[in-house]
Amino acid sequence: MLGAMQDWPLRVSTLIDHAAKYHGNRPIVGRSAEGPYVETTWAGVHAAAKKVAQALNHLGYGSGDAIGVMAWNTPRHMEVWYGVSGCGAILHTLNPRLFSEQLEYIINHAGDRVVMVEPDLVKVLEPLVPQLGTVEKWVVLTERANMPQTTLPDAIAYDELLAMADGDYEWATGDENDPCGLCYTSGTTGNPKGVLYSHRSNVMHALFASTPDCIPISSTDVVMPVVPLFHANGWGLAYTCALNGAAMVMPGRDMTAPGLYEMLEKGVTLTAAVPTIWLGMLQHLRQNKLSFSTLKRVVIGGSSCPRAVIEAFQLDYGAQVIHAWGMTETSPLGSVCSFKPEVASLGAAEKLDVQTSVGHPPYGVDLRITDDAGEELPWDGKHQGKLWIRGYGVVKRYHRMEKDAAEPGTQWFDTGDVATMDPNAYVRITDRSKDVIKSGGEWISSIDLENAAVAHPQVAEAAAIGVPHPKWDERPVLCIVGVNGARPPKEEILALVGEHFAKWQIPDDVIYMDELPHTATGKISKLELRKKLNGLGYVHPEAA
Amino acid sequence: MLGAMQDWPLRVSTLIDHAAKYHGNRPIVGRSAEGPYVETTWAGVHAAAKKVAQALNHLGYGSGDAIGVMAWNTPRHMEVWYGVSGCGAILHTLNPRLFSEQLEYIINHAGDRVVMVEPDLVKVLEPLVPQLGTVEKWVVLTERANMPQTTLPDAIAYDELLAMADGDYEWATGDENDPCGLCYTSGTTGNPKGVLYSHRSNVMHALFASTPDCIPISSTDVVMPVVPLFHANGWGLAYTCALNGAAMVMPGRDMTAPGLYEMLEKGVTLTAAVPTIWLGMLQHLRQNKLSFSTLKRVVIGGSSCPRAVIEAFQLDYGAQVIHAWGMTETSPLGSVCSFKPEVASLGAAEKLDVQTSVGHPPYGVDLRITDDAGEELPWDGKHQGKLWIRGYGVVKRYHRMEKDAAEPGTQWFDTGDVATMDPNAYVRITDRSKDVIKSGGEWISSIDLENAAVAHPQVAEAAAIGVPHPKWDERPVLCIVGVNGARPPKEEILALVGEHFAKWQIPDDVIYMDELPHTATGKISKLELRKKLNGLGYVHPEAA
Ligand SMILES: Nc1ncnc2c1ncn2[C@@H]1O[C@H](COP(=O)(O)OP(=O)(O)OP(=O)(O)O)[C@@H](O)[C@H]1O
Ligand SMILES: Nc1ncnc2c1ncn2[C@@H]1O[C@H](COP(=O)(O)OP(=O)(O)OP(=O)(O)O)[C@@H](O)[C@H]1O
Ligand SMILES: [Mg+2]
Ligand SMILES: [Mg+2]
User: How far apart (Å, rounded) are the C-alpha atoms in residues B83 and B62?
Assistant: First the structure.
């Protein structure tokens, strides 16, 4: 006997349908490729998305076809977002900052049959065309009148695509487990790996992401995703905004602090990006004595958020920080730092301490930490170990891999992160497994070292890595980029670090660099950093 | 090709697992059958629920078996709630205030194999035993030491049930569409009808109910469901509190205003009940010059909430009112009155007007209004018609019926309510189809008439019904219960009503009564009221 309730498949088209019907006039505005500023609404996005879907079907694309989209955060990207998934195809988001070999690899690996690309990004793809065997159709996200010169074969303009449709279209139907989107990991620890989201996983993620202890967004919010929609499923924001009928401000391609500030001042109440973006923003605010008129909340994740950033936003600029941890593989939210009653009544400084953790998992996410042997570790805030995750939004198997990534049966997925959990289930990411520094058999958290170092006013960026040591196996050293080329004395930096660490944990050396190597999503690449140090012939002073 | 994400079945056991693991210490407190006050936690409820489930399996009950539960809102009820569904059985909530024939009907119709009942309610069931053919096992929700004398055959006590289990138990697994709970409608318009919730429908409802524009509950909330868990799926609160890790205060059987006030003062931040409860509470507060120390939000639904109640809570007692509309058939939330940006900036009086509507549907619910021919009506706030609903939490077919209740294909379900919708999708329930007053072919809203009449300080309750009229077919009359037996002059009441209605809409007569007939959930029964008026030989003055 089954329950006798209605059984609607969880499809992402239900999200945009809801937004268009019940929040149809809510503005979706932003910078576009052609002009400075465009304005539409959820109803407008819905109507255009239907045309995109209908036109793709008309061209012969639909169920199960991968369609690559290389676009900035624009209102039009939202139309394409829902149009591609709505026609039954797979929205494959492309990060234009990937190395060309990586781009070539993921487009071929995904088997993209159509690629849609911003006019200013055709240059990124043109050289790859000969190697891209599966791409049959190129669409440039602009009007015919504004088409750039391009060697992309037979490229059509977005308005020409839309002209193939009259908008009288029913969304593709199908199983809720049908594939819906495809996003490759950032490639920080190796080659990007593909995560094939289903309609169901995306809707479930949008639902639990909207719960009060996660990242609740209401219809009165105006949300600006600074995090690109092509980074880790756009942090789910394209879905959660529709589900809750929030307005959106799309910043377009200008990721400079002045450019973003201008857009934040268009009524934005909630925004989201990686820490480096906010470091730049805070500098800009300070230098120009600016403040926010409407901003209430800032979601920060993707890398560990330094305490100073949290403090500045909250105390100096009146915006609450929501520190979140997630992965492409987890749709992406894994844990969010909201205040449970156990910590809600702590003093200001202690609450800030809590916020340097990545918080606790929402309903729909399950976590555990284990030692290397797979034995579960206690939640005492001290034991650190492998962090595992499972849930509605978590990958089972990487795209086109032979074997499951999650443990068969239990479905536990090894995040590759190292963490502690405290008795209230607050998680602290201390390292990536591959970046762990082990000195004399004991772990030293590279993330904590880095966060301690960037607290120095003249340190712009810091990376801690382990270098070989004759006696201790490995010892930590710090690579530092100074603010405007500054070289704050080694002793000063290490003294600052020493305030939070035991003596044996303090790095042995500080190496000054003009810049640190970054990945396509703006994270420090320890892989490249190690190569760079090797290239420089660096060895530990005591190993010289 | 399917998406390659993890596919966890939506089972309600995942809700209590989450609460116990990530919000384990959150208090679940309340009045019990035995003592004045008991305290447990989500971890405690979880542990006891596992024992309930294990013991039921041990006794031979499980997958698909209906288990009747007649209980007040107590911490123990929460244990039974998750225990019954957790063992694979169907939690059939029993309303002790139903007429005995109705109780007999629903227990037999459901085929309950076990019935669990509060010690003070065994008297309600004892006389029915001979007629209850399917019940094999009786459990009294108390300790053996406190067992009441009872003729329930071989009744065991709750602690004896728990003693059959050691708690080392894995929740029953199965399809997410397995039946999970069973609740019969209130019986306002006829015999109660059974709604068989699935695990999936309950989890989906809990998720969308938790979104910001619906009834967001966070882990810092302390929730007191005054609405009985046996009324309309307990308004979903047993699920949403677990999903969000909220604390709960369970008021037990004492539904008097002083009794409830005492419990509200135990830190409650959010509570929920039908309007009559709050009318009594407001009187109690005024008479005793009391105020609330912690209460922030009051959910009101089940019947239309008069404007004066909303105003008093918000202006005099600092608690925001959340006016909600729902049905047993819809899990139950259908629409909730939160402020969209279009109304958020209105003046205070206009915002109050908005709050007398039942708001707009959350994601997961779809609504439409039609005329009698099934043609969709415009959302202009004027056209009123049949209200239809569909969604994840909506019934497809009543329990053990031959035919679907929802329209095949479209799944639209006729709510039996009459409503208007405005351009922002705010819904106003003007009537039940069966109670509609049609004078000279034109509808007059009985709900609006009643709300206008109870604004009179000496009117405790009012019911508007249509009585036959020689010329106009039907004309409205008002049945009135005065505060403490008062009989405010007819002219005064009608003058008050006249402020909001056209002349032809004003009732022709006022009939004073000592009390109005109510259903088992405390709603005015128009069915019985009509019988009563007929019994009194009432005829319209102009028809006499
Ligand atoms: N708040 C945070 N604090 C610390 N680390 C974080 C935080 N949020 C995310 N991360 C890091 O980012 C990772 C997820 O990033 P993403 O999925 O974009 O790809 P990547 O792991 O950087 O690349 P790849 O998997 O290809 O090496 C997490 O596993 C974690 O290491
Ligand atoms: N906020 C509200 N305003 C007006 N009416 C409401 C509101 N909330 C609920 N209702 C009424 O309550 C009904 C649902 O109640 P419930 O499911 O408890 O059973 P019932 O309809 O009273 O009984 P039965 O269906 O057996 O006649 C709705 O259809 C509607 O008529
Ligand atoms: Mg990774
Ligand atoms: Mg009904």
Answer: 11
Can you tell me the distance from the alpha carbon of B182 to that of B115, in angstroms, rounded to the nearest whole number?
13
Distance CA B128, CA B115 (A): 12
How far is it, in rounded angstroms, from Cα B53 to Cα B172? 9
pLDDT (0 to 100) of residue A428: 98
Q: Which ligand is in closest contact with the Cα of A386? A: 1
Helices A275-287/A257-264 angle, 10° precision: 80
Conformation bin of residue A174: beta by default, left when phi > 0, alpha when psi is -120 to 50: left
Chain A nearest-CA distance from B424, in A, is 7
Q: What is the pLDDT of residues B223-266, one digit of tens each?
A: 999 999 999 999 999 999 999 999 999 999 999 999 999 999 99
Burial class (CB in 10 A: 0-12, 13-18, 19+), A314: middle
Q: B4 and chain A: CB distance < 8 Å anywhere? A: yes
Contact (Cβ atoms closer than 8 angstroms) between residue A237 and residue A273: no
What residue ranges define each of the domains in chain A, with the CATH number in brackets? Answer: 436-543 (3.30.300.30)
What is the band of A21 on the pLDDT scale with cuts at 50, 70, 90? very high
Predicted-assembly ipTM surpassing the 0.95 threshold: yes
**For a pocket test of ligand 1, which of A278, A369, A417, A430 has the largest count of ligand atoms closer than 8 A to its C-beta?**
A417
Q: How far is CA A361 from the centre of its chain?
A: 17
Long-range CB contacts (within 8 A, 24+) of A519-522: A519/A186, A519/A187, A519/A188, A520/A95, A520/A97, A520/A98, A520/A99, A520/A102, A520/A186, A520/A187, A521/A95, A521/A97, A521/A186, A521/A188, A521/A228, A521/A231, A521/A232, A521/A274, A521/A302, A522/A274, A522/A276, A522/A277, A522/A302
Rounded distance between C-alpha atoms, residue B160 and residue B512, angstroms = 52
Is B41 within 8 Å of chain A by CB?
Answer: no
| Catalytic residue flag (residue A450) | no
Distance CA A419, CA A384 (A): 5
Could you tell me how far CA A22 lies from the centroid of its own chain? 29
